[in-house]
Each structure stands twice: as structure tokens, then as C-alpha cells.
Please model this.
Amino acid sequence: MQSLKTKIFTCLLSFVMAFSMLPAMGSAAATKYPVEGKCGNNVNYSLASDGTMTISGTGPMYDFIYDTTTNIPWWNYRYEIRKLVIRNGVERVGNFSFALCTNLKTITWPTNGSLKSIGKCAFAKNYSLTAVNLPTGLISVGYEAFMDDSAVTELTLPNTLVTIAYGAFANLTNVTKVYLPASVKTIGDFAFRGMKSMVKFTGGAGLETIGVQAFEHCWKLSNFVITSKKLKKIGKAAFLCDSKLKTIYIKNTTKLTKKGVKNSMYLSSVKKVKVKKSKVKKYKKFFTYRNCAKRGVKVKK
Model:
């Protein structure tokens, strides 16, 4: 009969031998590239050994669900993705598709205008991405689509874009200027929140709605010019805590109402609102302390 010491030694030896085999087992199970599969009814993905992910086919990608049992097919390879190529024919980037791909540095977009929408959180928390130059043909950018992409320094919006959803570009902390094309009608709630380096926001000839706290905590924003004649609403606390913003220019707009600017200047530093000459008298009644919650706002031509 084996002694207790012998039994313990035998058990330990078996454990060490089993543990020493793990590297060999891992090597045998090494990833074989390309990693491929479906990500839409007629859309496929392929991940190469150099970190290039290619999305090809026609139609939309699937919308994925982000939870503890995520169904994103490349989830276990997300840190390996360094370059994303979306081929002509792909119409939509699905919800959560590339969230937390923290080593993704560049995206090549379709050139034929096929891409129409980017889904919820599709590129959220991609901390290595340096530029977001969205393609012509794109119509909508979804809820928090590029949120927290803090390395981005360049943001270009196409002249086909219509809708910017809730928090779509929130916390792009290194973007310094944004030009809004005339096609954009809606800036959603919190859309540009926390863009702490943004100094200049201009354009927006077709803009109709600015959402709640859309420009909150844009601490360096000092030049805000909207050229739209159609602006109807500036959301509650749209410029919350923007300490350098003293004047906003909405000089062409003729559609504002008292309700449309209610609480819009709450906790802002805005002192002047420049509007169309013919609207000065009327808009003075809208931008009052009681209505827009900012003492001392002056309305001038």
C-alpha cells in the first residue's frame, strides 16, 4: 500500500505533467487563417493573419446583441483586427459589429455609395482609430456609433448624411473642428457631447433640430455658426458647461418658436444669439430668462 506521502507526490507529479502539456495543446489549436463566415444574409467576413478584416457581399450586415453571451462571430478575435475593409455592396454596418475592437486603426469604406447606415454602437470604444471619414451615400449614423473613440482627430461627414443619432460622436476628445453638411436635418441628444478639443462647429444649412445637451462639455468650443433657415428646435441645455462659447450664430433661421428654445441655454455661457434682422424683435421674446434659463442672453442681428 502506498504511503500518504507517496500518494501526494504522485498526485503533484500528475498535475505538473498535465500543466506542462498545455503549451503544446495550445499550439495544436492555433488559429488557422483566414477566419471566415457569414455576417449577413448575403454578407461575409474574412479575417487575415495580418489583422485585416474584410466585409463583402450585398445588403445589410446582421444586427448583433452585446451581452455576456455575445453573438458577434469574431468576438474572440476582436483584439486582432487592425484594419477594416468594407467592400462595395454592403448597405449597413450592424449594431455592435466592431465595438471594443481596441486595436482597429483604419477603416476603408465603400466607394460606390452602397453604405446607407451605421448601427448602434457599431464602432464604440475603438481607442486606436484615428480618423472617421464617412462615405458618400451614408444617410444615418446610429446611437453611440463612434462613442469614446478618443484617438480620432479627424471627423468628416458626407453630403448625403441626414440623421446623427443620440451620442453618435460623443467623447471624440481630440477632434478640433466639425463641418456639418447641408443634408443633415437632425442632431440627436448628446450627439457631440464631450468633444473637449472642438473649437469650431459650422455649416448645417439644412438643420432642423439640435437635441438635448447635444454639445455638452465641449469646453473649447468658441465658434458656433449654423446657416440653416429651417432650424426649429434647440434642445434643453444644448451648450451645457461650454465655458468658452459666448455667441451662437443662427442668423438665417426663421422657424424658431418659444417652445423650440425652451431651456436651451440652461447652464451655458452664451451671452449673445445672432439672428436674422427681421427676427430680432420676435426672438427677443423667446430668449428670455424665464424661457431659455440663461440670464443676460442678448438677441442681435
Summary: The mean pLDDT is 90. Helices lie at 4-20, 22-28, 280-284, 289-292.
